[in-house]
């Protein structure tokens, strides 16, 4: 893994020449500077958003070149004349909402039209010359309720007779002019017999109609008119109401709450003294007032109507008193003075009145009535199209005038007109018969047209739109009106669409007021498209979503093209400028994406149920990535379109070639990195695009175009770091650290190289490569490169140390700090590298890779990374130990002498006095290193010292030439414990786990054995053999190793019979001992150690010929007392032998079974007394006596005067030699 010395020398020479006058920190810091610049750009987006939000709303103007259509000067004067005419002939009672004085209205009209006094007077005279209009009363009989029941069935058959009662004085004059009675004798005689007798009821009803009309006036007149001629005169007045003033409704049968909903139209002569009168009757006879009145309505012309009416009235008078006549019952009446009707009309319930003050009637009737006019110009009464057009023009003039007077922006105007304007418009509407829907239509047309000129508040337009929707009903507009309204709709919608096409300029997202305007515009557009009147007028209009989608696409493309042309337009510039400008364009798109998602999207979603960003970003994505790819192609050529993984397979050039590349392309690399970061940031916004569209976005694969760039970045970073390592080590000045007043533990080189690793980690995090598989390959490459850098640093530092030849001096105390700095630096770099994969988040990356690869493949990646780290780390640790070991080597001789002194010191000398010289020596030599070494290196130094002490201690103990007493061994144990305490103090801080090595444990065991008697040692020996047997069984099973075979048996102690039962079942996989590849096995069973069971004889099974898997199934009994079974250290010893007739038997293997743990032993909690056949089969692994060195045997061999020991050793040696 580490670079060879030759390679590093070549690299060093090239770097020295290349970077002789260049700062070594430039490259990696520049990469981080680019990343920080990117982060500042991200933060600036939010900051700019807050600043823009605090600004006043921008005043956007009409930029669509819409020229308003103006009327000609002649039409303008005619419209003014019409306005003056309207003011002069005001109708109806003026309410508090409107202005009453004509002069104020004239003044306002003159001001609004902008005319001089002379023009005003001239046009006013023309208006006065016009004929006065014909006054008309429009009445709608809606319904009645709670009428009196007149029929036997408890209901009535009500109908209404209604008419206009003329001015009384004028009526009397007209009657006298007709000859007193009102009918000539010729007319009466000619028509006397033309009607049938059943019509007599008509005059009676007509008479009641007259009485009801004049009942209030008669009360006073009756006291004055006393002569018969007077009474006859008034009777004649009541009988002679002109027929043209009478109309009737339909009859509603069997109801007390009739609903008519019938409309009537009456022409009035003056409107000042006339009265509207209505009677309600219950229809009874076959031909009554109802039928007569209907025929009256069928007569054409006023003269014929009067003649017919007179004939019916005369016939009715002659039969007035016939009792057999059928009559209609009177239900009530209503009177309404014409001059009391307000200009806004009447819509109310009236209580019914009786014929006289004593009459009792009940019930109410709902009547709607309003006044209008008709000019006598030969135009049909139903044709008010001219009035509607005039009303629209008048509205526009008044709107312009109000806007001129308004002090502020037009978007702040509420749209409220002055009372003067409202009064004129109201009079013009009622005089021209303009209905509510027509007025709403005129308001919409006028305000929507003015919006295209002045940009009115959308809230105002929404209010006008809602008013139009509320008043419209199917068939309420004529074809011409629908066409004009459609034209107004189209004009407004097109204007709104043009605004949406420039949404980013006209509705800046960060401005609260602009967002309110946008929301109101979309709300209006949505409202229009959802209105029935819009669908009626514009049946072929595309859906709003379709139109807005097309507009957003077109507007986004135009906006993007303007920006792209402005930022990336061709001019003389370097490759760096091309990349920087492209990055700038991407950052603008990031800011736009942020604003679209935060501001535009919620508004479009809540109003028109659309995602603005989804539509806009798809268009931006295609255009932007084309520009990005073109910029990358100019720099990287066809490599842009190659898969990133292919670059990892390309062999890298050597150091010099890479340096030549870096000299020419370092700035380009930084520009590429900036572009990559900007695209990476923009790609995050793709989650706001619909999933179905997201997969087709080019931005999703933005990283695929940077494979060659990443390869260059990593190569540059690697070589820059290698260069920095060499220069840093070269510039290290140990003298500065030695003369420092502070306790310096690291040189600048280690800090510098550690910073390199941190910057590599930071670079990787900034890169955030999206592709998991390629990321793992990059991560492996980074890990290997940094491993090489780590090893290079350690090698250079050690080489620099070796060049000083410090080890040739006998006393290293003078170089304590310098040596400490070296190992500390190496350890610091090792630690930085060891944590590098963690900082690179390799574990998370590998977990994510499991979605694309099998666990086995992912484990291979993991193993490769961790192996690289482990090998490098071990190499560095070995190098540290090598340096520290050279320090310890200088102490080795003196350390060994101190150990020999401690062991050989007589027992009468105090132990503390014996070990104190060694403690003092260690303090003198180690404490200086503690001040300069980091803790981990000081621990390593202590471990090396401890290793020398333990090795020497063990060596001295194992010497057999100097037999020692039991007390001397106990003394050595205490000395060893004192050493442990010394190295484990707070000052030394060596953990006990590190102190208690295998050799330490062996020493403790040997000292224990030396101080133990022979019998106990023999028991310990068998205990060790049992542990060895269990350990070998586990190892062979785990690693599937070949062994000596298995023995299967059962064992059980019968307490009452005081008998130990043993059954030998079989053996398996024995080793072949005969030439035929088989064996003739048998098993010997004995209890040991012998001194515990001296009376028990050895037993054996029968011999099974020619097999390696013999089956015995033989049972054996051993007479043992309860006490003998519970003795500690008792074992059943199984020996498997191969029988041989000619020679001695061959040894197959042995096994041990502890007696105290067998079933049936009294201390067993179960006291299991099951038969032997039901006991569980026991598997024992066969072992060989010499498989493991036995320290107990070696110690017993030294006890020459102990016969038991000598005999036991002899038996075990014989077994070992078999």
Tag the structure with descriptive keywords.
4-stranded antiparallel β-sheet, single chain, coiled coil, elongated, Immunoglobulin-like, disordered N terminus, C2_domain_sf, alpha+beta, 16 strands, 1218 residues
Describe the structure.
The strands form 4 sheets. Strands 4-1-8-7 form a 4-stranded antiparallel beta sheet, with no helix packed on it. With 1218 residues, the protein is an alpha+beta fold. Helices cover 57% and strands 10% of the residues. The chain contains 42 helices and 16 strands. Strand 9 (1046-1054) and strand 10 form a beta hairpin. Mean pLDDT is 79; it is low at 1-25, 59-65, 169-241, 299-325 and 654-661. The longest helix is centred in the C-terminal third of the chain and has 50 residues, at 855-904. Among the domains are: 135-167 and 239-374, C2 domain (Immunoglobulin-like, Sandwich); 543-718, no CATH class; 884-1011; 1014-1217, Immunoglobulin-like (Sandwich). It starts with a helix and ends with a helix. Helix 2 runs parallel beside helix 24 (655-683), helix 12 packs antiparallel against helix 13 and helix 36 runs antiparallel to helix 38. Residues 116-320, 1038-1168 form the C2 domain. Its main location: cytoplasm.
Write a brief structural summary.
The chain is α+β, with helices and mostly antiparallel strands and 1218 residues long.
């Amino acid at each position: 893994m580490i670079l060879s010395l030759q390679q590093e020398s070549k690299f060093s020479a090239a770097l020295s020449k290349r970077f002789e006058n260049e700062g070594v920190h430039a490259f990696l810091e520049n990469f981080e500077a680019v990343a920080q610049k990117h982060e500042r750009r991200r933060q600036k987006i939010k900051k700019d958003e807050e600043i823009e939000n605090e600004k006043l709303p921008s005043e956007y103007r009409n930029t669509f070149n819409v020229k308003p259509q103006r009327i000609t000067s002649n039409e303008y004067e005619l419209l003014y004349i019409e306005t003056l005419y309207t003011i002069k002939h005001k109708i109806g009672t003026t309410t508090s909402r409107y202005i009453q004085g004509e002069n104020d209205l004239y003044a306002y009209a003159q001001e609004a039209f902008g005319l001089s006094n002379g023009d005003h007077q001239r046009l006013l005279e023309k208006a006065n010359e016009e004929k006065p209009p014909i006054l008309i009363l429009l009445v709608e009989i809606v319904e009645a309720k709670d009428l009196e029941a007149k029929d036997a069935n408890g209901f009535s058959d009500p109908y209404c007779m209604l008419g206009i009662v003329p001015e009384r004085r004028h009526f009397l004059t007209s009657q006298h002019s007709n000859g007193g009675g009102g009918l000539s004798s010729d007319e009466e005689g000619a028509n006397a017999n033309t009607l049938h007798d059943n019509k007599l009821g008509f005059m009676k009803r007509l008479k009641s109609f007259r009485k009801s009309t004049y009942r209030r006036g008669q009360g006073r007149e009756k006291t004055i008119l006393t002569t018969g001629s007077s009474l006859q005169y008034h009777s004649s007045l009541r009988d002679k109401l002109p027929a043209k003033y009478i109309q009737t409704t339909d009859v509603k049968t069997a109801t007390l709450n009739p609903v008519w909903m019938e409309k009537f139209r009456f022409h009035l002569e003056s409107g000042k003294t006339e009265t509207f009168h209505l009677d309600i009757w219950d229809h009874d006879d076959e031909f009554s007032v109802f039928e007569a009145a209907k025929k009256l309505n069928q007569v054409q012309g006023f003269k014929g109507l009067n003649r017919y009416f007179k004939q019916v009235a005369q016939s009715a008078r002659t039969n007035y008193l016939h009792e057999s006549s059928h009559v209609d019952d009177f239900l009530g009446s209503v009177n309404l003075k014409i001059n009391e009707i307000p200009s806004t009309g009447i819509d109310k319930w009236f209580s019914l009145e009786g014929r006289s003050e004593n009459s009792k009637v009940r019930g109410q009737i709902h009547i709607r009535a309003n006044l209008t006019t008709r000019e006598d110009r030969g135009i049909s009464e139903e044709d008010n199209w001219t009035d509607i057009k005039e009303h629209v023009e008048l509205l526009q003039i008044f709107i312009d005038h109000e806007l001129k007077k308004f002090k502020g922006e037009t978007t702040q105007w509420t749209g409220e007109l002055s009372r003067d304007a409202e009064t004129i418009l109201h009079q013009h509407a009622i005089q021209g018969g303009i209905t509510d829907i027509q007025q709403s239509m005129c308001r919409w047309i006028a305000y929507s047209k003015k919006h295209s000129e002045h940009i009115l508040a959308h809230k105002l337009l929404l209010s006008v739109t809602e008013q139009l929707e509320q008043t419209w009903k199917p068939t309420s507009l004529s074809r011409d009106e629908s066409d004009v309204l459609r034209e107004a709709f189209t004009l407004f919608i097109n204007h709104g669409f043009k605004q949406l096409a420039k949404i980013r300029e006209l509705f800046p997202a960060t401005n609260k007021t602009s967002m309110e305007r946008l929301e109101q515009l979309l709300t209006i557009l949505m409202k229009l498209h959802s209105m029935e009147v819009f669908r009626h007028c514009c049946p072929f209009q595309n859906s709003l979503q379709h139109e807005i989608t097309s507009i957003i696409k077109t507007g986004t493309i135009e906006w993007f093209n303007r920006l792209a042309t402005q930022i990336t337009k061709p001019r003389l510039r370097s490759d760096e400028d091309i990349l920087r400008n492209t990055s700038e364009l991407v950052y603008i798109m990031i800011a736009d994406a942020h604003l679209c998602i935060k501001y535009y999207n919620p508004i479009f979603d809540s109003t028109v149920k659309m995602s603005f960003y989804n539509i806009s970003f798809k268009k931006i994505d295609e255009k932007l990535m084309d520009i990005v790819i073109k910029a990358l192609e100019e720099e990287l050529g066809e490599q842009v379109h190659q898969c990133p993984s292919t670059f990892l397979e390309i062999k890298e050039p050597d150091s010099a070639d890479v340096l030549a590349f870096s000299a020419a392309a370092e700035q380009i690399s930084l520009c590429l990195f900036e572009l990559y970061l900007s695209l990476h940031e923009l790609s995050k916004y793709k989650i706001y695009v619909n999933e179905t569209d997201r997969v087709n976005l080019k931005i999703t694969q933005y990283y695929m175009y940077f494979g060659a760039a990443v390869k260059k970045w990593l190569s540059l970073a690697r070589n820059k770091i290698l260069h920095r390592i060499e220069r840093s080590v070269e510039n290290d000045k140990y003298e500065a650290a030695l003369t420092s007043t502070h306790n310096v533990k690291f040189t600048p080189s280690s800090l510098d190289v550690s910073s390199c690793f941190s910057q590599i980690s930071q670079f990787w995090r900034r890169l955030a490569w999206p592709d998991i598989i390629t990321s793992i390959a990059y991560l492996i490459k980074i890990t290997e490169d940094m491993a090489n850098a780590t090893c290079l640093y350690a090698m250079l530092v050690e080489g620099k140390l070796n060049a000083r030849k410090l080890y040739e001096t006998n006393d290293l105390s003078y170089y304590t700090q310098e040596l400490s700095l070296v190992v500390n630096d190496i350890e610091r770099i090792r630690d930085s590298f060891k944590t590098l994969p963690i900082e690179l988040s390799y574990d998370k990356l590998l977990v994510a890779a499991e979605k694309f690869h099998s666990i086995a493949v992912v484990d291979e990646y993991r193993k490769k990374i961790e192996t690289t780290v482990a090998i490098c780390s071990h190499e560095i640790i070995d190098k540290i130990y090598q340096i520290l070991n050279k320090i310890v080597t200088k102490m080795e001789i003196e350390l060994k002498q101190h150990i020999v002194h401690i062991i050989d010191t007589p027992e009468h000398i105090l132990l503390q006095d014996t070990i104190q010289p060694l403690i003092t020596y260690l303090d003198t030599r180690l404490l200086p290193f503690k001040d300069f070494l980091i803790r981990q290196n000081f621990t390593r130094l202590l471990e090396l010292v401890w290793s020398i002490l333990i090795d020497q201690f063990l060596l001295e103990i194992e010497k057999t030439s100097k037999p020692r007493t039991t007390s001397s061994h106990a003394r050595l144990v205490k000395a060893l414990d004192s050493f442990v305490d010394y190295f484990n103090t707070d000052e030394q801080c060596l953990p006990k786990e590190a102190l208690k090595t295998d050799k330490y444990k062996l020493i403790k065991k040997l000292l224990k054995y030396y101080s133990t008697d022979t019998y106990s040692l023999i028991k310990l020996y068998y205990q060790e053999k049992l542990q060895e047997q269990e350990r070998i069984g586990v190892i062979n099973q785990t690693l599937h190793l070949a062994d000596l075979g298995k023995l299967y048996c059962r064992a059980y102690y019968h307490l009452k019979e005081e008998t130990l039962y043993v059954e030998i079942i079989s053996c398996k996989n024995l080793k072949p001992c005969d030439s035929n590849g088989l064996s003739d096995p048998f098993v010997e069973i004995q209890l040991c150690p012998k001194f515990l069971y001296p009376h028990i004889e050895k037993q054996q099974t029968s011999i099974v010929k020619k097999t390696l898997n013999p089956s015995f199934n033989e049972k054996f009994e051993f007479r043992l007392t309860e006490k003998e079974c519970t003795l500690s250290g008792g074992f059943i010893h199984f020996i498997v032998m191969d029988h041989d007739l000619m020679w001695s038997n061959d040894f197959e293997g042995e096994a041990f079974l502890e007696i105290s743990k067998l079933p049936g032993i009294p201390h067993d909690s179960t006291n299991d007394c099951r038969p032997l056949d039901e006991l569980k089969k026991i598997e024992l692994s066969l072992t060989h006596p010499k498989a493991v060195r036995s320290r107990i045997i070696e110690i017993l061999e030294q006890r020459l005067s102990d016969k038991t020991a000598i005999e036991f050793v002899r038996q075990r040696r014989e077994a070992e030699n078999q």
